[in-house]
Amino acid sequence: MPRPAPADAGPTLLIACALGIERFALRGGRERSGTRPPVVTLRTGMGPQAAERALERALREGAATARSPVVASGFCAGLAPGMRPGDVVVAETTRDHRSGAPDIVCRDNGPLLQALRQRGLTVHTGLLRGSDHIVHGAERAALHASGAVAVDMESAATLRAAHRTGIRPVAAVRVVVDAPEHELVRIGTVRGGISAFRVLRCVLPVFFEWHRSLLLPRR
Hints:
Layout: E1 13-17, H1 20-28, E2 39-43, H2 48-60, E3 70-78, E4 88-95, E5 104-105, H3 110-118, E6 123-130, H4 137-145, E7 148-152, H5 155-164, E8 170-178, H6 189-201, H7 204-215
Parallel strand pairs: 1-2, 1-3, 3-8, 4-6, 6-7
Antiparallel strand pairs: 3-7, 4-5, 4-8
Helix pairs in contact: 1-6, 2-5, 3-7
């Protein structure tokens, strides 16, 4: 379990991801960053239930404060034709796989989008859908037809759990590891995975820029 941040260090940035390889990529990005806020990189485990439990426990045990921004990050499946491994998805809204759960709106995405695009990355924005299983084929097409640009298993649950503890800045930034023309079952999986891993390693400084932008006075 992450250690609590010092009380005088300002709001901790809490980054949640499901897998060890995602956490490894995100932590590796620190070496290329400049000034950074106190940050906790939380590995939640796979699936919406694991993500929800892990985030609630981390907040309850003091890994972050009531003002801490929360980012859900890691890999995702792209839904739109033409998406490729290594593309980045920044959610405007996340929607849980369970019917009736409220959508979570990510309201402070401008600095994230600007910083990612300045790094030459291909960025998509829109609805990020949650799922409790890996999505393939016809189900992927149906989710895209419903308005989603990407799907993953943890982001919606993570941000919903973050919102239950109070109003705070939230974001979901995912890197596409497979897409309609590059599904995981295909032979290009390894190459696509390497592309996605490299991009995920470079997004941590972008999260720091976003964190700093949240501290600026609102005009």
